[in-house]
Amino acid sequence: MLQKILVIDDDEKLNELLKNYLSDFGYKVLSATHPERGLQLLASRKPDLVILDVMLPEMSGFEVCKRIRQDSDVPVIMLTARGELMDRVVGLELGADDYLPKPFEPRELVARIQTVLRRMVRTDDLQVQHYGALKIDFPRRKAFIDGQDVDLSTNEFTALSLLVRHIGRVMDRDQIMQELRGMDSDAFNRTVDITMSRLRQKLGDDPKQPTFIKTVWGAGYVFIGEEPQDADRED
User: Is the pTM for the entire model greater than 0.90?
Assistant: First the structure.
């Protein structure tokens, strides 16, 4: 089955260009020039990835991203004509998975799409693990605290998965950045900090007295959760 990509951009010519170009790489492309229509398509057609412009009529791409994250963990790649670092930081803080400034080479966009989608399907050898109140369902890329879905973005789950796969071992920023590859290098360092901050907040983890993720100053981050419990137990 073809993977579906939803493009939300008010530039009709760009939408048509992306539809034709991405179809050559085996993607089915849906497009909307208005944010509300884009949100409707997101709900009805369930795309595998969203390409979202920042500059939209009546509602900014930031607001659209915020609304997407209220109900969905679909990967989001944001586009901007400005390319300012602060715009990229805001997008990442709202849960975007990658950021690409306009103008861009279509082939670079394809590479970023492939990278983000590859992170979504990689499950390693892990299945379901319990670390105290934290349950991680690796195949579904979901995390739960006391049975409640904590609704992680692609980047947040990817970072958590990296730390858990190396439980007790400090992961430095370079290692985390490599795991989140595809991001604009200018935003890399901030990306790691934003991702870890959002992840901790969603897990209810106090950085001063962490239960799951500890900061090792000057070195990186380490997962310190309880040793895995029986994954077959009933919650």
Answer: no
